[in-house]
């Protein structure tokens, strides 16, 4: 429920051929459904629902032609909490969600700077009928040493999505420590690959799958299987 396989939209796959190669590798790891979530971020990744759906259609066609028929492909988006996101809420723009009637909305923030209105935005998103899901909270350095604040975010209604490769220390030792702490505290609601390229999938296969904490994580009542 968090990856960047859709071609040509952000810092993930650049071409349909790269998308199909990544898809084939994920299929080999046993995945049977992908909700792909390209960035939507201010003036940098000015993706639209129409453009994302067009990229999804192109990948679905290419996957079928490549003989990959047992993996269901869907799309949503990963929304960066900036002023443009606030304007989308103000204007009632369509937001791409996943999970059917659950209307899960994947959101992210700066890795370094804490948004001044995070709690307000989470409340506003909820009041509009969405269920916010905070992407990779273990990677936000402004939460380091402030685990109680991260717990408060979840207590206030945001679900937490862990990046699987954080368990292997791929991003940083700090992200690994927070990821393990989230697992120990039973505070992980969803997991995702956040795969942007084949390197991420190789790390998942060669390192993450053998970690002790992955086994602990998969014993939790994660929401992925209900999507």
From TrEMBL:
Keyword check for Hydrolase, yes or no.
Answer: yes
Q: Which domain of life is it from?
A: Bacteria
From which residue to which does any coiled coil extend?
Answer: none
Has the keyword Ribonucleoprotein been applied to this entry? no
Task: Could you list this entry's UniProt keywords, alphabetically sorted.
Answer: Hydrolase
Reaction(s) catalysed by this chain's protein: O-phospho-L-tyrosyl-[protein] + H2O = L-tyrosyl-[protein] + phosphate
Write down the EC number. Answer: 3.1.3.48
- Similarity annotation: Belongs to the metallo-dependent hydrolases superfamily. CpsB/CapC family.
Q: What is this protein called?
A: protein-tyrosine-phosphatase
Source species of the chain: Hymenobacter tibetensis
Phylogenetic placement of the source organism: Bacteria, Pseudomonadati, Bacteroidota, Cytophagia, Cytophagales
